Amino acid sequence: MKNLHEGQAFGQAMTTMGVTMLNPLSADKEMFSPAEIAAIFGVSRRIVLRWIAQGRLGGYRVSYTVRVARADLESFLSQHRLNDERKTTK
Q1: Which residues make beta-bridge pairs with 15?
Q2: 28 close to 10: Cβ distance less than 8 angstroms
Q3: Which of 13, 33, 37, 69 is the most core-located residue (most Cβ within 10 A)?
């Protein structure tokens, strides 16, 4: 499986500019709260809830809480991946 960092497995540490950080999408975590997803993407919790309400991101309501499964989050990421191909001009 791939995540935000191409070739990086879920739960592995990542090194950016010489600083090693833990991957926010921990390998042992299967469900995420809207607040956790908001922190990962740097958006507000309200935006994550809007994505769920619009059907852009799959979510589950359990009593008064909302959770997003890892598979739904991975699907959302793959649907919003930017094209890696770069145009070359001569």
Answers
A1: 20
A2: no
A3: 37
Structure tokens at 79: 């649907």
The pLDDT of residue 9: 44
Per-residue tokens: 30: 């299967």
What 8-state DSSP symbol labels residue 36?
A: H
- If we measure between CA atoms, which residue out of 28, 77, 71 comes closest to residue 51? 77
- Condensed to tens digits (0 to 9), the pLDDT of residues 38-83 reads 998 999 999 999 999 999 999 999 899 999 999 999 999 988 888 7
In the chain the first and final C-alpha atoms are separated, in Å, by 36
